[in-house]
Amino acid sequence: MKTKVILLALFLCIGILGCEDKKTDPCESYTEQERAKNYKWEIGNLDKKESCRITKQAQHFKTSQLDNNFNYTYQPQDDFIGNDFVEIETNTSSDNGLMNLSTYKIDFKVIECGMKTTKNLIATKVYDPCPGYTEQEKSRIYEWKIGCFNVREGCRITKQAKHFKISEVDSISTYKYLPEDNFIGTDFVEIETETTSDNGLTGHITVYGISFTITECGVKATKTIISEKDVKYEKAIVYGDFVDGCGKYIIKVKKKEYTAYFPPENLPENFKRHNLKVFVNYTVTDKTLSCGFSGDLRIIIINRIKKR
Fold first, then answer.
1. What is the spatial order of strands in the sheet that 276-281 belongs to?
2. Which residue, among 98, 92, 115, has the nearest Cα to 32 in the 3D structure?
3. How buried is residue 76: exposed, middle or buried, by Cβ count under 10 Å (0-12/13-18/19+)?
4. Residues 281-306, mean pLDDT to the nearest whole number
5. How far is CA 184 from CA 46, 93, 97, 116, 163, in A?
6. Which residue has the higher pLDDT, 255 or 232?
């Protein structure tokens, strides 16, 4: 009986000593980062349209800031024990051109062992950063389909824009404008259109001004009429032949002859069409000009064409 009592006491002693050796570490669940009480959130690479900011600052911080690389860092004040939180707003773009505005709340629970954090999305909304802009305007390309012109009519740029990548009237009388890459500001172009009567002897000239406002959102354009006037054309007799692969034509206006050269495809092949207005870039002069010349625009109504 005495021996049993001794053994029981021995087992109780060993059990008590064992319990003392297995005390729980209150900081066991904390990582090295949490024990360092240093929180970092790498928000990510943001382009020039995107942003992030602290909308509600923490109260018990030693460090609570966003750096230039959009990384948020938090450290509590020395010896602070308790709860803290911060709210951060991010503004990011999506593939469809819309923006996502999101607000995150980060809760900090600080004890002697370290700091536990919880990040939650508390608000979000999707919005258009460029309200009032059409898809065409957002593309930064402006187009004006001026109209269908026959051989007696046409249009041209009389005052060119200054900050353009494209500013031209194409072969189907459509004006296109695209600003220079990364250009923000205003620009302006003037375009002249000319229409004629059925007999080709009178016409109407209209000068349009197009003002462009270029922003990060796109291009806004305003078209106005600068001037209008009616015109009369002089009759001319044109004699033509070919010289060195170019069309050489003697233009006779009011009994005075002028010599001009054109690529043959710019005039009718059979020389028999009547009342044809020829749009060419040249200045009527008594000097002989070469193929490919340029200068002021002069409209000639060809009343009769014949070989000389």
1. 256-262, 246-253, 235-243, 297-307, 276-281
2. 115
3. buried
4. 38
5. 21, 20, 19, 47, 9
6. 232
Which residue type occupies 210? Answer: I
* Biggest alpha carbon–alpha carbon distance for the chain: 153
Could you tell me if 215 and 188 are in contact, meaning their C-beta atoms sit under 8 angstroms apart?
A: no
Which three-class secondary structure string do you get for the chain? Answer: CHHHHHHHHHHHHHHHHHHHHCCCCCCCCCCHHHHCCCEEEECCCCCCCCEEEEEECCCCEEEEEECCCCEEEEEECCCCCEEEEEEEEEEEECCCCCEEEEEEEEEEEECCCCEEEEEEEEEEEEECCCCCCCHHHHCCCEEEECCCCCCCCEEEEEECCCCEEEEEECCCCEEEEEECCCCCEEEEEEEEEEEECCCCCEEEEEEEEEEEEECCCCEEEEEEEEEEEEEECCEEEEEEEEECCEEEEEEEECCEEEEEEECHHHCCCCCCCCCEEEEEECCCCCCCCCCCCCCCEEEEEEEEEEEC
* 99-147 confidence digits (pLDDT tens): 999 999 999 999 998 999 999 999 999 999 889 999 899 999 999 998 7
Q: Which residues, at least 6 apart from 9, have a Cβ–Cβ distance to it below 8 Å?
A: none
| Gyration radius of the chain over CA positions | 41
Can you tell me the distance from the alpha carbon of 107 to that of 229, in angstroms, rounded to the nearest whole number? 73
- Token representation of residue 303: 């009343």
In whole angstroms, what is the distance from residue 133 CA to residue 140 CA? 10
Per-domain residue ranges for the chain?
Answer: 30-127, 135-232, 235-307
| pLDDT, tens digit, 9 for 90 and up, residues 58-106 | 999 999 999 988 899 999 999 999 999 999 999 998 877 889 999 999 9
Give the Cα separation of 6 and 9 in Å (integer): 5
* pLDDT above 90 coverage of the chain, percent: 41
